[in-house]
Amino acid sequence: MPSWENLDVFLQHDVAGGFALTATVVFESQKSADASATPESKPITGIFDEQYLNADLGEYEVDSAQPRFLCKSVDVQGVKRGDELYVDGRAYFIMTYPQHDGTGLAVLKLEPKDD
């Protein structure tokens, strides 16, 4: 991580003038190991984005949302595909391993979980 960047300043909560919020990761491996045990979870701070995609494919039109969560790389160590992320009461499956960008940040690509 570049020494001139303080990611905690970048990832300030909304009430402090930033755009970040706290979400909770629930580790799937813990859930499947013992159904009666409380799964391990961990809060992480980041920026949630659910960009909208509308594409015309000939005479067809595709509408899709592509939710993602940008956070510090160090916060998502051990996170993997199939884990869950809870953002403002909504549940999402984590669809890929964290995608690190080399600056100390990582992106989690998400898919809404239908309960």
Plain-language structure description:
By secondary structure, this protein is mostly beta strands. The chain has one domain: Thrombin, subunit H (Beta Barrel), CATH 2.40.10. Helix content is 9%, strand content 48%. The protein is built from two helices and seven strands; from the N terminus they run H-E-H-E-E-E-E-E-E. A six-stranded antiparallel beta barrel has the order 1-2-3-7-5-4. A hairpin with a 2-residue loop joins strand 4 (84-87) and strand 5. The protein is globular. It starts with 6 loop residues before the first helix and ends with a strand. The mean pLDDT is 86.
Fold blueprint:
Layout (H helix, E strand, L loop, with lengths): L6 H4 L10 E6 L1 H6 L7 E17 L2 E13 L11 E4 L2 E5 L4 E2 L4 E8 L3
Antiparallel strand pairs: 1-2, 1-4, 2-3, 3-7, 4-5, 5-7, 6-7
Total individual domains = 1
Shape: globular
The end-to-end span amounts to 38 Å
* Separate helix tally: 2
- Structural class per helix/strand content? mainly beta
CATH architecture descriptor name = Beta Barrel
Largest sheet: 6 strands, antiparallel, barrel
**What name does the CATH topology carry?**
Thrombin, subunit H
Radius of gyration: 16 Å
Broad CATH class: Mainly Beta
pLDDT average, as an integer?
A: 86
Low-confidence stretches: none
Number of β-strand runs: 7
Helix fraction, binned, reads under 10%
Strand order of the largest sheet: 1-2-3-7-5-4
Content of β-strand: over 45%
What is the H/E string? HEHEEEEEE
Give a nutshell description of this structure.
The chain is mainly beta and 115 residues long. It has helices at residues 7-10, 28-33, and strands at residues 21-26, 41-57, 60-72, 84-87, 90-94, 99-100, 105-112.
